[in-house]
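User: Second chain of the day. Same drill as before.
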Amino acid sequence: MIEGGGMGRRTICIDCRYIGPRPSGIAETVRALVDFVPELAPDLDFLLLRSPAHRGALSKAVNVREVVVPSAANGPATMWWLPRVVDLSAVSLFHATFNIMPAGLKAPCVTTIHDLMWLTEPQLCSARLAGRAQALFHGHGIRRALRKSAAIVTVSEASRREIIAHSPPAARQTFVTMSGVSPEFRPVPRNILRLAELGVRPDRRFVLTVGQYAPYKNHEGALRAFACAFADRPEIDLVLVQRMGARGERLLRLAKELGIRGRVRLLQPVSRADLVQLYSSASALLHPSFCEGFGNPLAEAMACGCPVVTSNVSAMPEVTGGAALLAPPDDFPKLAEALRKAVDDKAQAAAMREAGLARAATLNWRSFAADTLAVYRGVLAS
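Assistant: Same format as last time:
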């Protein structure tokens, strides 16, 4: 049995099962909570639910205890009977960190809702045949969170506005805890040997796109915008770093249709150090998403001094804070125009690098954790 601390101390349970070998924006937010909240709240105890895919302890803090939960984060056990899987009887507050609120919780729940895409535009979340079942599953958990959470936290004002528009009664208990960016993301010198090892030609310039291959990321649009900008510029490549599996062949077929097949590099997820190298070496990040709760590649690229071209919708303008060039995600000529400015205009690129570094410096994970802790304390006080 996992219990809280001594008499008079309260225990907050944080579901950390998104932390594992697969990179994700949600995992980054949870990692920040693990790294900073126990230190910021020595008067509280913390119970962390850990995935078996994560090897070793999540935290060394003295006010932290951990329990491995074999059930999948986004699975039936989490949705309908988590309190039967793990003993939560000593928990004073539960933090559901990945959009869905479990059923049967006795303690008040803070739910992080990163975005509402599974409710409002599920076709943007998954192109697979199982996408409809996934939409029903996630939609159920999000609706419960909107109805029953003691507080909702989200990672941008854009997401907060979307939550309130969808569920006006949630306005009073919805708070923004703006995501951050790790200090590991910083400008580094171009390493031509490492770029070559990654499959990137170090003698050529390249535009970078980063993120999972999901419809909302608009990677097909990235290819079309790149082709529109640089079809006649054989010295510039497009490099995509993504979770994609076999479906990446669809992008290669499109690249062939657009006449840029030999200039498109598809990389599987890389180490953080290699991602920093790619951001630092790229001529620009192209991130034409249709929707984002936050968009970690935007902050990471800016922190590495990489000029950013992104969409003028959802959270992208808010996150980049005036440092990026913006265009509609489905307007390929306008995206191409912005991309050419970022790549070819040296003065424009230098200004974007400076503005991006300044903006990224304001996106701090410790501040994110402190804001989340303030929500915890508000719920506990009420």
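The CA atoms of residues 2 and 92 lie 13 Å apart.

User: Great, on to the next one.
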